[in-house]
Structures are given as structure tokens and as C-alpha cells.
Amino acid sequence: MASKLQPIVVFLCLSSIFVRQSAAGQCPMSGTSSGRRSLKQAGPSLQFGFYSSSCPSLDNIVSDKITWYTNEDGSTPAKLLRLFFHDCVAGGCEASILLNSNGAGPAERDAPISATLEKFNVIDDIKATVEAQCPGIVSCADILALAAVHSVRLVGGPTFSIDLGRRDGWNSYASTATSFAPLSTFKVDALLTNFGNIGLDQTDLVALSGAHTIGEIHCTNFADRYQGSSPFPDWNFGNEMYNYCSNYGASPDFATLNRKTFMETLTPNFFDAQYFVALTQGRGMMTSDQELYNDWRTRPLVEAFAADRNYFFDSFVSSMQKMGRLGVITGTDGVIRKQCWASP
Ligand code: HEM
């Protein structure tokens, strides 16, 4: 297998297309991830119930752990859902977001855009429990996917399955995260390009943005709203947020990294369609949120999701499943890491 793949890997490296490197082949340009990479799926596809014989307790382990962690800290589901997105968007759903930096340079999780990602410890803990029961069977990438699924369910979102069988990558570059994660200041053109680059379309963009119905946001991530380009249409709400962010402790800055508020203030702890309602009211927190309503291309879908929670849920599930297939490593490629933070 290794020798068969080698010429392809060399060709792709020479073409400066960044391809996730499997255990079988390393790009000579190790330490850099410049250029476009393909997130097209190769090899065997994922399957629903992939571990039903090899690790039948997997689903219960993940569900129980996430329930426990959520009881300890209600912010857990949002953080795990975001972690899955950041894994998939940067080089594919192969758990590279979980890897620690090593001699090759800073890893994805140490990129500036990853600074507010949290709950890596939850995945590490689930992995340790899974390893104790099913050693060497379940990838960190699949644990991350399942964690996202159970997180959504636990806070009132749709109950759904995700296909499994991902294997783990073992390279992770901060530059990949920097290049591919969307920015809060993006408007619809940039968002569509960003999502389009990895094979996600306009419906995926709007549906997946609905994840912002839960969780929190730092003031820094909507500071641009006060600089003219996409102000809060609800002026009073914008003013309230401005005061909230300005009056923080000893810091003279509007937006300190430490101050947070809810992503969606109507029902912040529930996964529902109120994010879209908030957008129609001019209360989207980030430019990238509000512009989905401001732009004629995405507004109809925002309105449709705001009016019909089930339509949003169905679309969200499809888009999550689609996102979860981005750039996956399957079959005999990649590895099953023993610890999610460490390359084997
Ligand atoms: C459309 C482009 C997107 C942009 C620009 C974006 C950006 C951001 C930013 C800046 C934050 C706030 C981080 C902080 O201040 O701590 C955030 C939070 C969050 N994002 Fe996104 N995101 C996008 C799409 C997504 C997608 C597709 C998902 C999942 C499917 C997602 C899930 C979340 C969640 C759940 C939170 C709350 C995290 C927490 O409570 O700590 N986001 N996002």
C-alpha cells in the first residue's frame, strides 16, 4: 500500500496541493501546509454502525461522559460542537485539531484562531475510557464526531446518527487552521468562498451557522461591528453589547479577550431555531452571522429556518453528516491514535 501511494503523494506535494499525509507517506515539505488541499473523500466510505461489533459500548460511553461533563459545566456541548467544526474545516475530520504541537512547529490547536477552543480534555478522557474497553479500535476523529452528535442532542437539538470509520491523521499545522477557518468578520461572499473551498454549499453555510444558537462569544469577535462595516441593525441591542464589553474590569479596551456573552441571547442554552429569529431581529452577534440575513442570497433560508424549526433541524443534520465526511481518512490509511493529543 505504501509503495503504491508514494508516487501520488509526491505528485500532490509537488503540485503544492496540501494533502493530509498518511502513515504511509510524508510530504517532503514537512512543517508547511501552504497551498490548497483537497478534502475529497478517498478510500472506503464511512458507515453507520461502524463499531457495532468491534466496540458496541462506544455510543454509551460517549453519551455518558458528555452528560457527566455537561452536568459539571453547561458550556461543554457548545465547545465540543465547535471543536468538531474546527477539526473538519482544517484539513478534514481526522482529529488533527487535537494534536499537540511538536518539533514540526505549532499545531492547529495553537493557531491564533484556535485560541478560544476548549474541552480537549473531554475528548482525551472519553478516548481513555474507550481504549480501556476497545483498545486500538476507535479513532479520535470518530470520538470527536460522536461527541458533537451527543452534544447537540443533550441541549435539545436533533437526535441523529453520524457515519463512522474515520481514522486519525498525524500531522497538524497551525497554518492550515489559519488558512481555512472562517473569520467572524466575513460577509457572505467570503463565507461562500470559504465553505465552497471545502465542498460545502450555501445551504450548508446557513444550516451549520445555526450551531451559533448555543455557546458563547468573546467581545473581540464582534468588535468590528462598531467600526462601520456591519453594525447591529438593532441599535439598542448593539449599544447594550457595547456597554457590556466596554465596562470590563480594569481594561480600558472595548474588547478584552476575556469578556464573553451568549452567542444567541433569546434561548442561549438550547439548541433551537432562535438563532435565525435573532438574525431577523438584527441581533446576530458576529458580522458573519448577521450578514446571512442581510444578504439576499442567504436571507430566504434564514427566514425559512426561523419559521420552521424542523426544517432547520433536518438541514442541520444533513449538513453535519456532509461536513463529517470532509477529508476523512479511511481503510488502512492513517492511524488509530492511543492518545488524541499525541502522534504515534
Ligand atoms: C460560518 C462561519 C463561522 C464563523 C465565522 C465562526 C466563528 C466563531 C467564533 C468567532 C466564535 C466565538 C469564539 C469565542 O469568542 O470564544 C464561534 C463560536 C462557536 N461556533 Fe462558530 N463559526 C462559524 C461556523 C461554525 C460552525 C459551522 C459550527 C458548528 C457546526 C460552529 C460552532 C460554534 C459554536 C458551538 C460556538 C460557541 C463555542 C463556545 O461556546 O465556546 N461555528 N464561532
TrEMBL record:
<dbReference type="GO" id="GO:0140825">
    <property type="term" value="F:lactoperoxidase activity"/>
</dbReference>
<keyword id="KW-0732">Signal</keyword>
<feature type="disulfide bond">
    <location>
        <begin position="55"/>
        <end position="134"/>
    </location>
</feature>
<comment type="function">
    <text>Removal of H(2)O(2), oxidation of toxic reductants, biosynthesis and degradation of lignin, suberization, auxin catabolism, response to environmental stresses such as wounding, pathogen attack and oxidative stress.</text>
</comment>
<dbReference type="InterPro" id="IPR010255">
    <property type="entry name" value="Haem_peroxidase_sf"/>
</dbReference>
<dbReference type="InterPro" id="IPR000823">
    <property type="entry name" value="Peroxidase_pln"/>
</dbReference>
<protein>
    <recommendedName>
        <fullName>Peroxidase</fullName>
        <ecNumber>1.11.1.7</ecNumber>
    </recommendedName>
</protein>
<dbReference type="InterPro" id="IPR019793">
    <property type="entry name" value="Peroxidases_heam-ligand_BS"/>
</dbReference>
<feature type="binding site">
    <location>
        <position position="213"/>
    </location>
    <ligand>
        <name>Ca(2+) 2</name>
    </ligand>
</feature>
<dbReference type="Pfam" id="PF00141">
    <property type="entry name" value="peroxidase"/>
</dbReference>
<feature type="site" description="Transition state stabilizer">
    <location>
        <position position="82"/>
    </location>
</feature>
<feature type="binding site">
    <location>
        <position position="87"/>
    </location>
    <ligand>
        <name>Ca(2+) 1</name>
    </ligand>
</feature>
<feature type="binding site">
    <location>
        <position position="92"/>
    </location>
    <ligand>
        <name>Ca(2+) 1</name>
    </ligand>
</feature>
<keyword id="KW-0408">Iron</keyword>
<feature type="binding site">
    <location>
        <position position="96"/>
    </location>
    <ligand>
        <name>Ca(2+) 1</name>
    </ligand>
</feature>
<dbReference type="GO" id="GO:0042744">
    <property type="term" value="P:hydrogen peroxide catabolic process"/>
</dbReference>
<keyword id="KW-0349">Heme</keyword>
<feature type="binding site">
    <location>
        <position position="272"/>
    </location>
    <ligand>
        <name>Ca(2+) 2</name>
    </ligand>
</feature>
<feature type="disulfide bond">
    <location>
        <begin position="219"/>
        <end position="245"/>
    </location>
</feature>
<feature type="binding site">
    <location>
        <position position="182"/>
    </location>
    <ligand>
        <name>substrate</name>
    </ligand>
</feature>
<comment type="similarity">
    <text>Belongs to the peroxidase family. Ascorbate peroxidase subfamily.</text>
</comment>
<dbReference type="GO" id="GO:0006979">
    <property type="term" value="P:response to oxidative stress"/>
</dbReference>
<dbReference type="GO" id="GO:0020037">
    <property type="term" value="F:heme binding"/>
</dbReference>
<keyword id="KW-0964">Secreted</keyword>
<dbReference type="InterPro" id="IPR033905">
    <property type="entry name" value="Secretory_peroxidase"/>
</dbReference>
<feature type="binding site" description="axial binding residue">
    <location>
        <position position="212"/>
    </location>
    <ligand>
        <name>heme b</name>
    </ligand>
</feature>
<keyword id="KW-0479">Metal-binding</keyword>
<dbReference type="GO" id="GO:0046872">
    <property type="term" value="F:metal ion binding"/>
</dbReference>
<feature type="binding site">
    <location>
        <position position="108"/>
    </location>
    <ligand>
        <name>Ca(2+) 1</name>
    </ligand>
</feature>
<keyword id="KW-0106">Calcium</keyword>
<feature type="signal peptide">
    <location>
        <begin position="1"/>
        <end position="24"/>
    </location>
</feature>
<comment type="similarity">
    <text>Belongs to the peroxidase family. Classical plant (class III) peroxidase subfamily.</text>
</comment>
<feature type="domain" description="Plant heme peroxidase family profile">
    <location>
        <begin position="45"/>
        <end position="344"/>
    </location>
</feature>
<feature type="disulfide bond">
    <location>
        <begin position="88"/>
        <end position="93"/>
    </location>
</feature>
<dbReference type="InterPro" id="IPR002016">
    <property type="entry name" value="Haem_peroxidase"/>
</dbReference>
<feature type="binding site">
    <location>
        <position position="267"/>
    </location>
    <ligand>
        <name>Ca(2+) 2</name>
    </ligand>
</feature>
<dbReference type="GO" id="GO:0005576">
    <property type="term" value="C:extracellular region"/>
</dbReference>
<feature type="active site" description="Proton acceptor">
    <location>
        <position position="86"/>
    </location>
</feature>
<feature type="disulfide bond">
    <location>
        <begin position="140"/>
        <end position="340"/>
    </location>
</feature>
<keyword id="KW-0560">Oxidoreductase</keyword>
<keyword id="KW-1015">Disulfide bond</keyword>
<keyword id="KW-0376">Hydrogen peroxide</keyword>
